[in-house]
Amino acid sequence: MKCYYEELGVERNASESEIKTAYRKLALKWHPDKNLNCLDEAKERFQLIQQAYDVLSDFQERAWYDNHREQILRGKNSDYEDNCLDVFQYFSGSCFKGYGDDDKGFYSVYSNVFQQIIAEDAEFMDDEMEVEKVPSFGNSQSSYEEIVGPFYAYWSAYCTKKTYVWLCPYDVKAIKDRRILREIEKDMKKVVQKAKKERNEEVRNLVAFVRKRDKRVLANKRLLEERAALNRQKQEQNRLEQIRRRQEELEEVRLSRDAQKDDDYEEQLKQLEQQYSDEEYDEEDVETDDADGLELSSLNGDILVGEDDTEDYLDDLYCVACNRGFKNENAFANHETSKKHRENLGKLKAEMQNEEDVHQNSGRRKEQEEVEQTDEDLKPPNRSRKGKKDAKKSKTSVITLEGQDDENKFGKEELEKSLEKDENGTDTDEGWANANKKGDSNNNIIVVVTHGSFN
């Protein structure tokens, strides 16, 4: 077996770019299409070049190859005490030819390798059923879910069943000292653990090597990628569908709200039209009835209506609540049945009731104040003789609280005459009495205000 670095013709510390350049040159040189004269040799050499590049171009595989290069190239002798299978010889593409199911094919070669490993471990298994539970490698047509997947799941976590007790350099049966025996067992435990760890790593690395080149795994990987892409596409379609449905729902809600608003507007317009149509109907009835009345009057020329009768007739056809007049009884009767007339009539009654209450209250207060003022003015004053002379100089003003008609003027003159003083300049009680009688006969309250002072 040849070293991969020697196969590509590069140094062990070569860079990734140097390895890639060397691979391209050798691949062009040994490609089977360019070596038709030595086709078999070209195919074999081209496969080795391809395998060397696959290992050295991968960082992890190159590191593992560098650590185990001598073991892979040299291999283990079959006369080892453990007599285990040398798996390092299968870390190369030269151990198989093609991916068929023939004896030298990929699946036949590695199926035999894993069967040998299980056979070695079977000697250390207590239950024979454990061997049957180990998944097989299968062939090129094996199902991934039933065979390929379980196989790599088991072997990727492989743990050997070997005890490696033959690695002990001492004869335990010959040792009698228990202290020395305990020390030997402690050292052997470390040796066994190390040997198991190395074997497990060898087999697990082999499984990783095989899995990377297994066409069934690559096909399943592509299938999973296609399924993932399809799932992403479906999820995107579902997301877009949800967005579309949400937009439709929002549009329906918006349209329903607009329709509700339109219905409300139409209802309001209908109410306004109904209100205005009632008023127009009343006016049309009035005009129609007026025209009919005028036509009837022109036809019946012998019917004469006096001016007073016309005014009374029009007063009967006048609506105080609505402040409107009608020229015939039919129009007035139709108006009285309208909604607007009833509303205005209710408002008018309420206003009249309020005004009546206010007027009654103010009238009672005013009447009480006038009575009190009249009683105070009608009291005969107590004045001295000296004051009587000064009283001549005072002026008497008569204020009528109600009315300025001729009867009030007459009452005023009578009151002034009755208030004339006697020869001694004193006011007589008879004059005051006459004045009161005259004032009462005119149904007016006369307030006499004397400008002057009383002593």
Automatic annotation (TrEMBL):
Keyword Zinc: yes
Stretch forming the signal peptide: none
SUPFAM superfamilies: beta-beta-alpha zinc fingers, Chaperone J-domain
GO MF terms, alphabetically ordered: nucleic acid binding; zinc ion binding
GO cellular component: cytoplasm
Pfam families for the chain: DnaJ (PF00226), zf-C2H2_jaz (PF12171), ZUO1-like_ZHD (PF21884)
Entry superkingdom: Eukaryota
Keywords: Metal-binding, Zinc, Zinc-finger
The keyword Oxidoreductase belongs to this UniProt entry's keyword annotation: no
Name of the protein in question: DnaJ homolog subfamily C member 21
